[in-house]
């Protein structure tokens, strides 16, 4: 990688160092396909290297943003990371400086892949799937339990990055609302969330709350246990997973029999799988995706349910996102 000379005075946004866009491009070998991790709702994620460490670089795509304010999204995220003590989000190293170029943020994060790409994998075992489920639940809960709560609004497997040990990180906040963030810069009906994770009650009423995130988390949980994800190149209906799950879960069954577990057969054969866990997590996922937000659980209840699973009780050290997040939540 060629060295990029810095020829402008150092600048900082909310305490984060601003870098020349050409320097950021150099981190990613000029945005090469080999460095690309995946697309996200408003741009592309890349693996980066600054000569000392592996990085993750998020670049907003002006063509995708259309009428939306990418620079404003970046400023909101920098403000959020600077002002709020949350541990479910990666550390920021810096950001882009020139508003004439695409906006970018550099994370101190070495990524294995997005959760979206990992979900169908046969190498993603039951224990690690529950580790991810609990980690994301803890992170979302921490947003909701702040004195001034946030609604993330675009929780999805595409916006979650996993390290090699399957530690998950939320990596996009382009639609975040509430807390100390300025009022949203667009109408709710213009952007509602990531396809497949959008709350139907939100679409019908325009009413947004923490339960909007609970719905998206329910879809995420279903994806983790069924190994199914929405693929916009193959699936015509973004809501195919919810509709399939409701049909399977609410289908006819013999009197006295339990509702079916929706866990994929290959995961039921996993050494760490317990049938009771399968039923409990299926029921929790179905409660999260109920149409009426009042019928959905709070994230605190979701976390308690996950902690009560056999796999968590027997592998708790592997299923906690990190001790700092635990301490933060215990004080909330």
Automatic annotation (TrEMBL):
Name the UniProt record assigns to this protein: Protein kinase domain-containing protein
Provenance organism: Cuscuta australis
Gene Ontology MF terms in the entry: ATP binding; protein kinase activity
A GO CC term attached to the entry: plasma membrane
Domain named Protein kinase: residues: 31-311
Pfam families noted in UniProt: PK_Tyr_Ser-Thr
Keywords: ATP-binding, Nucleotide-binding
Taxonomic classification: Eukaryota, Viridiplantae, Streptophyta, Embryophyta, Tracheophyta
Membrane spanning residue stretches: none
């Amino acid at each position: 990688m060629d060295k990029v000379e810095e020829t402008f005075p150092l600048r900082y946004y909310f305490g984060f160092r601003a870098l020349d866009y050409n320097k950021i491009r150099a981190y990613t070998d000029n945005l090469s396909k080999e460095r690309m991790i995946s697309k996200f709702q408003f741009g592309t994620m890349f693996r980066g290297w600054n000569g000392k460490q592996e990085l993750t670089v998020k670049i907003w795509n002006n063509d995708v943003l259309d009428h939306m304010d990418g620079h404003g999204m970046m400023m909101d995220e920098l403000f959020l990371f600077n002002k709020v003590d949350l541990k479910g989000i990666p550390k920021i190293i810096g950001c882009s400086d020139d508003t004439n170029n695409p906006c970018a943020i550099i994370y101190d994060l070495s990524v294995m892949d997005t959760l979206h790409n990992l979900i169908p994998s046969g190498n993603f075992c039951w224990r690690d799937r529950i580790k991810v489920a609990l980690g994301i639940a803890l992170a979302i809960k921490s947003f909701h339990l702040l004195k001034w709560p946030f609604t993330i609004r675009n929780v999805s497997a595409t916006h979650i990055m996993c390290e090699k040990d399957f530690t998950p990180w939320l990596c996009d906040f382009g639609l975040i609302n509430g807390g100390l963030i300025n009022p949203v810069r667009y109408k709710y009906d213009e952007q509602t969330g990531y396809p497949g994770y959008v709350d139907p009650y939100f679409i019908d009423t325009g009413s947004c709350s923490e339960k909007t995130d609970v719905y998206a988390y329910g879809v995420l949980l279903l994806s983790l246990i069924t190994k199914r994800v929405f693929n916009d190149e193959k699936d015509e209906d973004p809501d195919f997973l919810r509709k399939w799950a409701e049909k399977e879960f609410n289908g006819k069954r013999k009197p006295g029999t339990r509702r079916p577990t929706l866990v994929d057969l290959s995961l039921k054969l996993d050494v760490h799988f317990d049938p009771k866990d399968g039923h409990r997590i299926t029921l929790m996922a179905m409660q999260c995706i109920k149409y009426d937000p009042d019928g959905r659980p709070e994230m605190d209840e979701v976390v308690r349910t996950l902690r009560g699973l056999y796999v968590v009780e027997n592998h708790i050290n592997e299923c906690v996102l990190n001790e700092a997040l635990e301490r933060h939540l215990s004080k909330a």
